[in-house]
Every structure is written in structure tokens, then in C-alpha cells.
Specification:
alpha/beta; 4-stranded parallel sheet; two-stranded antiparallel ribbon
Length: about 140
């Protein structure tokens, strides 16, 4: 951004053209959106304000970013973006902090947790049978 002085003496920032590096994307829709927003698109410029990538980036690449640059991925985001990894990480946190991590339903990663799921199912069925058995013994008022 360039700073200029108007006749009033106030400093006003002029907006520069936003550049988007599309060298790591194969999706045409990203280019179309950037162009619709009047952004300058490039496939070579490492000084671009926005860097769009289809895949995850390394921590080293993230560390190389300049303070003004933005990228659409961050290192390790697959651990929360994929449902199976998110479930695994939430379950780990629930083991350590059970009171704070009680906000998500019971989750199984199949096929690895198939036996655990079936045991849970059978235990649930047993509880339902006991509940029906005892509810028949309670007199109606």
C-alpha cells in the first residue's frame, strides 16, 4: 500500500492490487474467483499476498511466509480436517480431560473399532432388555 497526501493534509492509504499465487492449484474455480475479485493471478511470484495450494504445506514453507502473506492451509491441518483424525484426536483429549471433552457423541473409526462398536451395541441391547423386564414389575398408579 502506498501512502499519499491529499490537499487536506491527511494521509490516505491507496490500495494496491492483491496478487494470488496459483502455482499449486489445479482448480480453475480458484482462478475464476480471484479474477472476479479483480485480483492479479500468478504462478511464479513468491511475493504474492495470497498463496493457494491444493495440498498440505510443510512447516518450513509456512515459516518462510512474509508477515503480509496468507495461505489456505497450515501444517498439520489434516489432523482436524479429516473426520477420522478429528475423532481420534478428540478421543485422546477426552481421555485426558473428560469433563471438558464431553460435547461430542460416541465415535468409532471403522473398520479398526468394529469390535468395540459391536460390544457397545450388545451392551446397549442388554440394558434395554433389563429396563423392559423391570418396567413390567412396576405397578401402574
Amino acid at each position: 500500500a502506498v501512502v499519499s497526501t491529499q490537499s487536506t493534509g491527511k494521509k490516505v492509504k491507496k490500495r494496491g492490487i492483491v496478487s494470488v499465487n496459483l502455482s499449486s492449484t489445479r482448480y480453475d474455480v480458484v482462478k475464476r474467483v480471484a479474477e472476479a475479485l479483480n485480483y492479479s493471478t500468478t504462478v511464479e511470484n513468491n511475493d504474492s499476498f495470497i498463496i493457494w495450494s491444493d495440498c498440505m504445506i510443510t512447516a518450513e514453507r509456512c515459516a518462510e511466509l512474509k508477515p503480509y502473506q496468507r495461505i489456505n492451509h497450515f501444517p498439520g491441518m489434516g489432523e482436524i480436517a479429516r473426520k477420522d483424525c478429528l475423532a481420534r484426536n478428540l478421543q485422546k483429549m477426552q481421555k485426558c480431560y473428560s469433563d471438558d471433552y464431553d460435547f461430542f457423541p460416541k465415535t468409532w473409526n471403522l473398520p479398526a473399532d468394529y469390535t468395540v462398536l459391536m460390544n457397545y451395541y450388545h451392551d446397549l441391547k442388554k440394558k434395554e432388555k433389563k429396563k423392559k423386564k423391570y418396567s413390567a414389575l412396576i405397578p401402574l398408579l
